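Hey, why these numbers?
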Amino acid sequence: MLAHYRWRLDPTTLRELVDDPEDLRELRQGLTDKLASALDNRSRARLLSLRAVASRVLGDLDDALDDGRMALTYAEATGELRRSALAQARLAHVLRWRGEFAEADRMFAEANSAELPDRLRAALHEHAARSCYDQGRLMEACHHFERALDLRGEGDAELLARVRVGLDAIAARAGASGFGPYPRSWDEVLERERAPVPARDGDEGLWGYADAVGDLTVPARYAEAQPFREGLAWVRGPQSDRWSLIDLTGETVVEPTYLAVRPFSDGLAWVVRDDSGWLAVDTAGAVAVPPGFAEVRPFRRGVAAVRREGWGAVDRSGQIVVPTRYHGFHTTLADGRYVDGFTDEGLAVVDLAGRKGVVDRTGQVLVAPAHPVLLIHPVAFLATNGVGQWGALDRRGGSLIDPVFRNPDEVVAEIEGLLSDATPML
């Protein structure tokens, strides 16, 4: 009902307007009634975040904020990327209306994963543009509107109409007060400090770290220096074959200990101390995952692909969550991008004797290894049959679209047709 509720966009404030608030209050009461019997995290996340939408449009911003924050807590507990992104977006929209722009912009950015459906990503950019408009960041607003159109412009007449309203508002404001500051970088929006980068001293031939203007912030005293990740970097001195760990100031966190090292990811780094194989250490150098792996991949959202007798996965405590029985991980997204291990959603394509399947971060087999090629789509899995024709499976591994198409792009278009009424309700 909310998805089909008609409202208008104010051409000056770029906020939603309703002609009959009483109808919307009735809808909000219906959501409240449903919440009384909703027990699982998925249902409560959805109902609370939708009630936040209704309260926001009605101007009850305190109630909307409380619902939005609680909805995000429930959504994150599900571990589902799309559900968490929707909850973040709805909460960010409330924060924008409250004038809490820094947190709103950060949430819009964090929610906008490349693994989400284009329709949702376009909506995130559209609402991020409106937040920038409120702040007088008109160039940045234009960039977000442009990105929304790149993702969905040709296939979404309603989005195109709303963007036109937004651009007209920008033109009117820019004529009076200019376009405002230059667009911020991703790191600035996410409030990340720019780490110094490896820089070589030409006279000594040693490595240090330089800031954005090229000044050395960590002296050039290392034979090798890896980039900073999560505020830490691995370095090797000229008189040692062992790597040590330093912080952003150049202070040593871990003394020279390891023969081989990988950058930090998700708070852990893979290292080799001796011939016992790869182990993982935390940011203080304490062992988090015991040694014993021949090959490893970075941790992503709590899991990492590893190889012992075969490929599997471990969690942050070293517990095997995917049995090491597979011949490889070959996670490729429907748009052609390769993922090293698990996606943000916690899915991975595994190979068993040349046949592809899908497992999640808990080790559950969603699609048995039976397909020559398999790609991860935001709402489905694209797969080929024995003669190279493409179809799609749903997220439980059941048949969604018969394998009758010549290429994956045709299957994606078919999925878009099935999702024609699935406009994200923000």
Observations:
- Residues 301-426 form a domain with the Lipocalin fold (CATH 2.40.128).
- The chain has a mean pLDDT of 92.
